[in-house]
Amino acid sequence: MITGEPGPDRPADDAGGPIRIGALAPLTRPGWVEAGRHLLAGLESGVREANHAGGVAGRPLELVVRDTAADPQRAAAAVDELAHLGVVALAGEYHSVVARAAAGRADALGLPFLCSSAVLDGLTEQRTDQVARLSPPQSRGWRIYADHLLAEGHRRVAVVTRPSVYWAAGTGILRDHLAAYGGTVVEVDSGALTPQGVCDALVDRGATALVLLVGHPQPAVSIVKAVRRDRRLADVLIGAPAGQPEFADWATSLRADGAGVPFLSYMPGRLGPLGSRVGRVLGDRLGEAPSFVAFEGYDTVAVLAEAMRAYGTDRARVAEGWPHVTVEGTRGRISFSRVPGTGVWQWAGAPVQVADRDPAAPERLRVLYSG
Questions:
Q1: Which helix (H) or strand (E) holds 176?
Q2: Residue of 241, 358, 359 whose CA lies nearest to 367
Q3: DSSP characters for 53-108?
Q4: Is residue 225 classed exposed, middle or buried when 0-12, 13-18 and 19+ CB atoms within 10 A define those classes?
Q5: What is the pTM (predicted TM-score) of this model?
Q6: Which are the contacts of 205, defined by CB distance < 8 A and separation ≥ 6?
Q7: Which of 11, 43, 248, 316 is the least crowded, having the fewest Cβ atoms under 10 Å away?
Q8: What is the largest CA-CA distance in the chain?
Q9: What is the DSSP letter of 242?
Q10: Can you tell me whether residue 114 is helix, strand or coil?
């Protein structure tokens, strides 16, 4: 059973009922709703398939969903509520700052949390055994993105940004990595400039690439349109490492202007049989091509189900299983290890690509670079 409204409180080890998994996702604004929808579709599909296979020890899995709306305080409160409702583990979340708040609260409560999509390196303030993560840390993915910029000849890069821990971390990663190869990063404050003002700043600073570190749809859509229409910037590359161009609303909002904008995608070069089958299931559920976020959601449940089958449904046993569980996921074989700088159990082998929408056919994604 999948539900957004739980029934009466039930302890986590109740052998008579379904095994509850708490799920966090941004399902309303100001959260990135489309990413949340894809994440939830993956989680729900994973639960459905696990239950068709007999669940865990004959008990079905039940997803108890809470909308974070990109609000860290709301997420922390949801973790408290879900822990009280007896969930065995916590799953999901897309926004890094929100996931960090959820991870900290889950750690304090002794509630295992498998983070699906958030990439901020410091997901917890201190090392923890409670939290594991599927998505690659930001430092790894964004260095690969910087490698792509360098390979394309871009050594003077502008980032248009707004205040955020996540955007600031990304800027630092790009700056440090580009500097090692003679490149520079200049910052443009989108809050202080109109889209046309951003264009003028790019010309003044001689940037050959503009990296969008701002929210979608606004101000990202307005900035892209302004740059595309400015003849002075005809040769300037626009990039969006956070992944906005993968989603359908980017293509709908920008059409041809949204093509040729490289982003980070956490997909392998080629899907195997499981990934291909799940991709079809997710596509049918979503009514569009599934993003990497949907696959992350499915893999999250696959890992949790295997951990509970192997180590039991007690919260402490699930957390103890992080370094031992191995699962064939949709995007490769998943196992967890300690990665310096993260403080959590990390899937170190998560795939990373740089992709874009093909200018010749904007509905089609193409891989530009693999890390």
A1: helix 165-179
A2: 358
A3: TTTBTTB-EEEEEEE-TT-HHHHHHHHHHHHHTT-SEEEE---HHHHHHHHHHHHH
A4: middle
A5: 0.95
A6: 156, 158, 186, 188
A7: 11
A8: 68
A9: T
A10: strand
